Amino acid sequence: MQEMRFLNSKERKELFQKLEEQFAAKPEIDCLFFENSQDKVFLLSKDYASFDVQALRVNNRGMYFAKREREGLRLTIEGAQLLKARKNVVLLDKKQAELWMLGEDIPMEGNQGFIILQHGEDILGCGMLKNNILRNMVPKERRLHSITASQEEKEDQ
User: Fold this and answer.
1) The pTM is what?
2) 128, part of any domain
3) Does 78 fall in a domain?
4) Could you read off the pLDDT tens digit of each residue along the chain, which spans 157 residues?
5) Distance of CA 95 to CAs 104, 147, 149, Å?
6) Which residues, 6 or more positions from 45, have their beta carbon under 8 angstroms from its beta carbon?
7) Are residues 68 and 95 both part of a single domain?
8) C or N: which end of the chain has fewer Cβ atoms within 10 Å?
């Protein structure tokens, strides 16, 4: 298991300020925050301290939330879903959302940096918008392999 360190209150405050600047989000996340040597930020329940984990085989502690990068915070899918972002959120149409979930980059006007992607009420994750291309950040193991028509669409045909 990799070494992680707790974020102290000053570091946590800086993280929250960055989330406010980048996404106009005021997270209401009452968790412990860890960071590993690769600048990845993880969340862990405060109840963790009360568990006796010595007898357990633990692969990972916490949920991967975000990674600090030069361009800003790159949120994971779960991290994007936890925030109630009001800035740098892009609504995708159905075709764009399908391409995104298949792992494709999407042509799109802009040069904003990291943005949160939404289709309808669903938060799909975080991508990098640069040079009019939305770069896909969905890990390969989480991408869809194909899209099938929904039952509703089949009935319309």
Assistant:
1) 0.84
2) yes
3) no
4) 567 899 999 999 999 999 999 999 988 888 999 999 999 999 998 887 677 666 666 556 789 999 999 999 999 999 999 999 999 999 999 999 999 999 999 999 988 899 999 999 999 999 999 999 999 988 889 888 888 775 455 555 5
5) 11, 10, 12
6) 31, 32
7) no
8) C
